[in-house]
Design goal:
Length: 281
Amino acid sequence: MFIKKRSGSELSSFLNIVKKCAEEGVFLTDTHAHLHFPELATDIEHHLTEAENVGVKRFITIGINKKDSSKAVKLAEKYENIFASAGVHPHDASEFNHSDIDFFINTFKQEKVVAVGEIGLDYFRNHSPKDIQKDVFAIFLDLSVSEKLPFIIHNREATKDLIDVADPIVGRKNHGGIVHCFNGDKDLMKWALDADLFISFAGNLTYKKADELREALKYIPLDRLLVETDCPYLSPMPFRGKQNVPANVIFTAYTVCKVKDIDYRNLLLTLENNIKKLYTL
Ligand SMILES: [Zn+2]
């Protein structure tokens, strides 16, 4: 279900398949990375080349607050194959000011900005008070409707409130959305699928103890699926514990192939189709 060793026959035979797809021009997108974070931005050319070598050729770099979203957009403007999202992460919700709305509306109109996010609720860390998190989340969901952009949702231990806030907005005409870094929550999965949202899997899908998450993946139709790294966080196996990089999205895709019993090439074609339904890139 996942590659255990950083060398050996399982890894090398997978890398052969990866290489063959890359040569045929069948490629993968890392739909959720933080490439503009200092951990990655300082050596960005290296990370992009390394990703390209394993057929990971398109990236969405995700903003988490006002200042950070500007950095995301700047990086996207520099590279043809990098796109950006802008938003306020629940951790940063208390920093948000209503006077920032104009800044975000302007940002959403930039050519390389393709999504609103990441936004959502995080009751695990609670860096911002719950009421403020909910207010800011609702504001950005509204903006995703008015600016005609898909949204990217972060949820941690807040499923009930998240659905309460998002459901009325998602029930209106929305422009699609993603539940990012899905953690296996069944209520969230059911709601997201009913609302026609996409569910995105990150490196935690590959963890030894993630049987429940892999079980949940069996119930998600292929045409609702995306993969991401969330780098610099959450390295998949066999690189768990090291800083994550965009090239590693191939290992999450590997586990998706095993769970869904689909070959790598077909998975990549399916994911590309999904991305095109959601984004204009
Ligand atoms: Zn993220």
